[in-house]
Amino acid sequence: KEMKSKMEQAGFEIVEAYYMDIVGSFLWWLKFKLLGSKELGGGNLSSFDKFIIPILAKLEPSKMLPFGKNIMVIGKKIK
């Protein structure tokens, strides 16, 4: 809702908005909540984004996910 609101305030009409990367949500929860990590970066994260995300993007029914680590919002500039 926040992203949609900000884009509309910036003069965009929302074309699509949906969650992505449900697997990453679980991995984030595992790393930061369950294991208590404070470190954001690292080689594993960049490898995950580079190799795993493109595969998941093709496999996930993205537009139907109830939550995800990322949000995809596509907007069209209003004239």
Would you kindly provide a brief summary of this structure?
With 79 residues, the chain is of the alpha+beta class. It is 48% helix and 22% strand.
Walk me through the structure.
By secondary structure, the chain is α+β, with helices and mostly antiparallel strands. Helices cover 48% and strands 22% of the residues. It contains three helices and two strands. Strands 1-2 form a two-stranded antiparallel sheet. 1% of the residues are buried.
Keywords:
79 residues; alpha+beta; 3 helices; elongated; single chain; 48% helix
Give me the secondary-structure topology:
Layout: H1 2-9, E1 12-20, H2 22-34, H3 43-59, E2 70-77
Antiparallel strand pairs: 1-2
Q: What is the radius of gyration?
A: 15 Å
Q: Please tally the β strands and state the result.
A: 2
Q: Determine the number of helices (DSSP H or I, runs of at least 4 residues).
A: 3
Helix-strand sequence: HEHHE
Class by alpha and beta content: alpha+beta
* Sequence stretches where pLDDT stays below 50 over 5 or more residues: none
Tell me the major beta sheet. Answer: 2 strands, antiparallel
Distance between the termini: 23 Å
Average pLDDT, rounded to a whole number, is: 80
Q: What topology, given as strand order, has the largest sheet?
A: 1-2
Shape: elongated
In which range does the helix fraction lie? 40-55%
Beta fraction of the residues? 15-25%
